[in-house]
Structure formats: structure tokens, C-alpha cells
Amino acid sequence: MHTVHPQLLADLTRRFGMPRVLHWEVEIGPAEMEMVRASRRGWRSHDVTFFIIGPHALVALIRKPSFPPGVWRAPSGGVNPGEDFVAGTTREAAEETGLDITLERYLVRIHVTFRTPAGSQEPWVSHLFLARTEGTRLLPRDHGEIAGARWSTLEELTGPIRRRLLATGRGLFRYRALLHDAAYAALRGGPYPAPAE
């Protein structure tokens, strides 16, 4: 099972700073658990979520074809086995947004256990990074996975977009809202969220 190796984590913290480390348990539905298990593809147990800040202090967001109307989130992806971490993150960002990015800061690392009401569980790790871009044109390259991309303010992301994510009633969208909150706390200061919030 592919995780980010401890030596690589040490290198990332030397290059991009020590992240805030959080441990969460998040309840999700059975169909969502199948999505988590499918995304593992036998090797993956992590995602890297990018808070890409562009000109005018706007953040890049994406939506997938399966998302309900009004649902947007920060782009994310996985680093493949044997792939350089920075190369993997810049590849994923380009696929999902069309932007060339520069990683700037390791914001938060979240160790989460996804649980279903019936007691099924899966561990996962999300690595949240601040990235910068000079680009302004959002042109996702992976049209099968990404239905659209747009710019947003951080306040919109943690306000109306957060409310829309929570209104879906889905655990994985709730988790994404919590990731956005954690990144916002790292960027602006303030309390870090907990899954019970």
C-alpha cells in the first residue's frame, strides 16, 4: 500500500515547513466507502490537496462530473509509486486546472479514518499544500475527471461553497469542507476544525 514514506515526509518538511498534524474520524456512507476503496487502486492511501493561489489572491477550484450543482473544491490527486513528489503534485495540478504551480508551504497533514455506520473503516492521509501560480486561465486537461474549474476567494470557499458542500449530506463532501477550513486556519490563523463541527 503506497503511502508517503517517512524519509520523504522529513524532506518535505525541510523544504516546505512543518505542517499542522491533525487526526480525525469521519463518518461516510457505504457508497462513499466504496469510492474510497476504489480510489486506492490497490496502492494509494493518500491525497495531496493544493490550495493554488493565483493573481489577485484568488484560489483555484474544480468540480467533477458527478458533483451536485454548486459544489466546488480545491484540486487534489495522488503521487504515483516511484514518482517524485513535487513532479507528481505539479502533474496533478496541471491535469486538474491547466496551471503551472510552485509548491510554497506544507500547511496541514490529516490522518483520517473513514467509518461507515455499520463499522467498516479505511485509513487515509491528506497532505494540504499552499501553491502559487502566475497563470490566470483555468483549462483542465483531464476532461474525463474534471467537469470545470474556476477562481474563488477564500471567503467564498469557507462561506457559501462550504455551506453547499455540507448541504449535500455526504460525508466525503463534509470532509472536503473540513479540509478547506483547515487550510484557511493555516493561512489566516484561527482555530483548526474538528470533524464534529
Share in β-strands: 25-35%
Strand order of the largest sheet: 1-5-6-2-4
By secondary-structure content and strand pairing, the structural class works out as alpha/beta
Integer count of domains: 1
Report, as a whole number of angstroms, the end-to-end distance: 31 Å
CATH architecture: Alpha-Beta Complex
Biggest sheet descriptor: 5 strands, mixed
Nearest-integer average pLDDT: 92
CATH homologous superfamily annotation = Nucleoside Triphosphate Pyrophosphohydrolase
Helix content: 25-40%
CATH top level label: Alpha Beta
- What is the CATH fold-level name? Nucleoside Triphosphate Pyrophosphohydrolase
DSSP E strands, number: 7
pLDDT under 50 segments (min length 5)?
Answer: none
Number of contiguous helices:
6
InterPro entries: NUDIX_hydrolase-like_dom_sf (IPR015797), NUDIX_hydrolase_dom (IPR000086)
Domain Nudix hydrolase: 43-179
Organism: Caldinitratiruptor microaerophilus
Keywords: Hydrolase
Topology:
Layout (H helix, E strand, L loop, with lengths): L5 H11 L3 E8 L2 H11 L5 E8 L5 E5 L12 E2 L7 H13 L4 E14 L5 E12 L15 E5 L1 H4 L2 H8 L3 H18 L9
Parallel strand pairs: 1-5, 2-6
Antiparallel strand pairs: 2-4, 3-7, 5-6
Helix pairs in contact: 5-6
Keywords: Hydrolase
InterPro entries: NUDIX_hydrolase-like_dom_sf, NUDIX_hydrolase_dom
Cofactor: Mg(2+)
